[in-house]
Structures
1.
Amino acid sequence: MNWLTTTQLWTILSDPNLWSGTLREATPLALAAMGGVISERSGVVNIAMEGMMLTGAFFGFVFTLLFSNVAVGLLAAIVTGGIMASFHAFAAIRLRADQIVVGMAVNLVALGLTSFLLFQKYSSNSLTTCLPPTPCTKGQLRTIPDWTVSVFHLDQIPALGSVLFQQNPLVYLMLLIVVLTHFLLFRTTLGLRIRAVGEHPRAADTAGINVQRLRYLSVILSGMLSGLAGGYLSLAVAYGFSDNMTAGRGFIALAAMIFGKWTPFGAFGACLLFGFGSQLGYSLQNVVIGSFQVSPNLISTLPYVVTIVALAGFIGRAIPPAADGLPYDPAEAG
């Protein structure tokens, strides 16, 4: 059997585009995973991140086209993600419905809604725009271009320059959000209260903490971050929107959160792993092993295989917050 030669392997792994692409692929996963960490630390399972990402991607791109302003599009993505999350929060917290069922319902509603609006409004299953730096023609819109950090010639550093200092601004925002999420959960009073209602809501309620309010806040914040992740996909990666374009990224973000054991830095590390698996698939598409051409269809399954393998054998026992997924009724506290 023919395997990758040392030369082929080194060529792939030494390519800066592999590592730069890894960071790009990890960005939407990490944004959604940070929201998932916050939501589940408060005790609410959020498997609806897929639907929140999808609505964020759709409305972010549509509002960008309508107002010819990327900032408006990103704001729309964040807001619509939060709106979808509010429905999930209402059903899971106020109505105390099964959180898994509600989450799947939100995902299906998001898929159906975006598909319907896309076809009804544009009579198509995709929307596109011009690719930077190609000049835009009438009816097209430039989206979010990459930044080059040229201070102290950082972008000229061999290998690392293109990986770390020639990225999309939302990649840098994602890195900041990861740090801020860790700071929020483990260095602030609000974070302590969020973790308290996720571990022992009755004790938190007894201490005067409004459990339901904090859970609403956490779930909606989760939706806003997921919406931002969707906006990143349509405005900075695909430069357009296509039907079901999130393609399971919300579920991979959920897996990354579990892989990271409900911690921001752990989830971010898992997102990098999954991003690497996805980008490695792209790098292998043009590789010929002996006389065997690697199938693109097989390669496309690589990030999902990495997800399954990682969750099945490499994280040990993952222990969620004690009250994660358990509804809480303040009337029963007494």
2.
Amino acid sequence: MSRFYNVCGSTALLAALLFPSPFVSPTFAISAPNDATSETPSAADAALEQARLLSVAFRQAAQKTLPATVNIVVKRGVDAPNAAKSKLPFAELLPDLPEKHLIEGAGSGLIVDPSGIVLTNCHVVAASEIGKSVSVELSDGRRFPAKKIVKDEKSDLALVFVESPEPLPFLTFADSDAVEIGDWALAIGNPFMLGSSVSAGVVSAKGRFLNSKDGKQFIQTDAAINPGNSGGPLVNLRGEVVGVNTAIASLSGGYQGIGFAIPSNVAVWVLGQLRDKGRVERAFLGAPVSALEYDAAKRLGLAPKTGVRLGAPFRDAPAAKAGLRANDVLLEIDGQKIESPETFEAFVERAAVDRDYSLKVLRNNEKEPKEVKIRFEIKPENYVGVPLTEKMVERGSHRVDREWGAMLIPSTPESAARLGAPGREGIVVLNATPGGAAYKAGLRNGMLIVKLNGREVKSLEDFDAAKAEATPETGIELEVVQKSEAKTLRLPVKK
């Protein structure tokens, strides 16, 4: 099974590279170029010229890109047993006193503003506030300490601000939507902490979603991406950034021909928000969406992978205000076809909130779609939606767990039977917010929670008591039932 790896570097990965096997540099004979006047150009000559021109394009793109691609150097202090203690008399009688060691790791980044703004991956500088120092090293050897770091975990992007006495070289962005499969791409970065490196390949795929739970979209490339390349640019032959290198799919942890980069259009949007606001504000629809099954699309006369089905809108959310209903099929937004829940949600989170959008909607199996106007809103922090269809919410019999990002209500005999658990009692998951802790752990709308850490829960009071007994070290184990099938999930618990 392939595994996905973030590709920031560490000193552990460098060990095998420091002691290479001895080698002898071969001697090459250099022949003089053919006299173009004495020989008619052949097909081979034409092919060589095309290859030479491609090599020139690679070279020019690299020369443009390398000065503005940086190494992100991260030093962190770790506690280790005091090595000097063993040299003292009666060492076994002395307490273990920890001593600090500095471990240096690295990733990559790209300068996006001559004033000293560097874009990189969030996971490269993830724990930079705690016992770490971060600096930015240019290809010419200059090193600047980070003065400020702002991060967005959801997109896995971060900005590192440095101060330079003179303007720094910087890169520009291309439109990642215009990138086509098969286009040449160069991955620039600092693999294995070796320093600036360039690898070439093509764009292998677009619109990859490695994990539908987090909604992150990627460009796939076969340009070599290795540990240390995280945060570096993926560029076209003009040296323009089309993506930010982020992860690889690998059985070994190293390069196996499948790398992933955050599209430049996403990076530019996140960059602007982090620079101007210090955080990323995302718009939201306020209703769950799901893929339209093949048979359902066929019944409606739609092509496969056309449209998404809407769940029950949440109270006072944009979907409800626009008059959308459960089971509506959304076909287009502002003339752009909706192909999957992932692409639609990626569109919505970057939508403007100061204008109306036009949705084409099929309702009640009608053949002709209707037009619905919708205006999106910024999603509140720790938002948990309240479905309009649940009457028990109106009576106050519910619990909003913002730590997990879930809304819960006690079951009734009718709701338990409807969920495929007749005769069972428990807590119904009315809404698990995508991106929340509950959703990431596998909790979904319509699941029936019957046990917490082996303890039966039949009321919200039982739920609160069982959760209160859990510790951050053990977390909490949930037994849930969905469609007559039982499964076990584990969720974190904060202190």
